[in-house]
Amino acid sequence: MFSDAFEFWQVVSALAVDHSGSRVLSSSYDYTVRMYDFQGMNARLQSFRQMEPSEGHQVRSLSWSPTADRFLCVTGSAQAKIYDRDGLTLGEFVRGDMYIRDLKNTKGKSIAGGVGDGSIQIWNLKPGWGSMPDIYVANTHSDDITGVKFSCDGRILLSRCFDGSLKVWDLHQMKEPLKVFDDLPNNYAQTNIAFSPDEQLFITGISIEKDGTTGGMLCFFDRGKLELVSRVGISPTYSVVQCGWHPRKKSIDDFLAEPVIHNPHALPLFRDQPSRKRQRDKVLKDPLKSHKPEQPITGPGFGGKLGSTKGSLLTQYLFKQGGLIKETWMEEDPREAILKHADATAKDPKFIAPAYADT
Are the C-beta atoms of 163 and 140 separated by less than 8 Å? Predict the structure, then answer.
């Protein structure tokens, strides 16, 4: 079991595991993709690389190539990107035609998909492209479809929806679903479905409900009997969004979502400490803090300031003759200077005398 909720502050929207099971890709609503290496991972379970494929666009899908030497990243932008195994950019898709001007020319729009109107559309690529799908099933769900999954033998199609249902379809008879599983809360657009390696089981995650007590769970279904086999509790406070069953690791990867709004730096008390460079830049902008302090008093003359320059010797002499500058502290007796305040201290004691007046 591998959970990525500790490194992401938002919903984990996509995941991909390579065929060897050594590297995992995960993405979130914070626009970032994180790369994990199980062979080089320590107890802190941190990613070895983090990147933002398209600035300001959420990551929708991640997938490895058959040789696992590169992976495809699809974001909310109009251009997907290809990266190598270490996360270096290899290429970017062209933007292409963004609009449909001819109903007979819809190349590159869809192959198979669950549409926002609740319908499932499937295109057959062998005869060629066309404007109409080969299979169109309207009103399959009452809300947006969040995920579809084909079986490898091409017989079964699974669909997951916002309405809290999972439907099993026979690709040869798409008029009615073979089975409908309800009471599967789904609050995230990336909630998917996954098959087991032998495709005898399929799994999906469920979201936590507002007033519910079950929390996020992982549900297992039997393909042959078309029944719910088990529900495994994952977290009382997190929703299970993405799940995958790896054939070699013999384990299930599930990625969770925390239903808490994280607003960093909303309160000054909880803000992160800025870097040293930013602290220095802030100090330099402050005129009081960036002001050069005055030099210590070491020069000759009154207070160490007069007589420090050539033109001030005459000024200092005239001040002394006029009585404006009187340096008599070197000629005074320290004892007499202290005793001249004895009468005033006896008449108005402040500290020592009142403390010992009664003892």
Answer: no
